[in-house]
Amino acid sequence: MKKEDIDKLIEESLNKEEAKFYHELEEEGLFKQWGGLYTGRLGGWAMFITIVNVVITIFAFWFGYKYFTETDPMLMARYGAIMIIGLIMNGMVKLWHWMQMDKNSILREMKRMEFQIAVLSEKVSDKS
Fold this sequence. Notes:
- By secondary structure, the protein is an all-alpha fold.
- It is built from five helices and no strands.
- The longest helix is centred in the last third of the chain and has 55 residues, at 73-127.
- The protein is rod-shaped, with a radius of gyration of 24 Å.
- The protein starts with a helix and ends with a helix.
């Protein structure tokens, strides 16, 4: 049985409320997933980490500016090292955000599969 056939069978067996729930579990776009980071149990942490990331980015740019305008080689090395550390931290924070978005996507797909299994098992039990 193809995926389209299963989806059609599920659609036919749903009432309006169940169909609405089923369609809410569809794949989300990038910006909707990004906005979803700030809801739920980890929403506060995501907001805090975003603010920290903005501060880290500002400091990285500031030390980058200082690096390119400094003439003392010792200070240039320090500013350059701080800038690189800031950019690496920025990348790590962005990686955390992407992993959270991926986790939310996987959880949504698991809920969708659970829903499909429940509907199909109900449909099969009604036939027997």
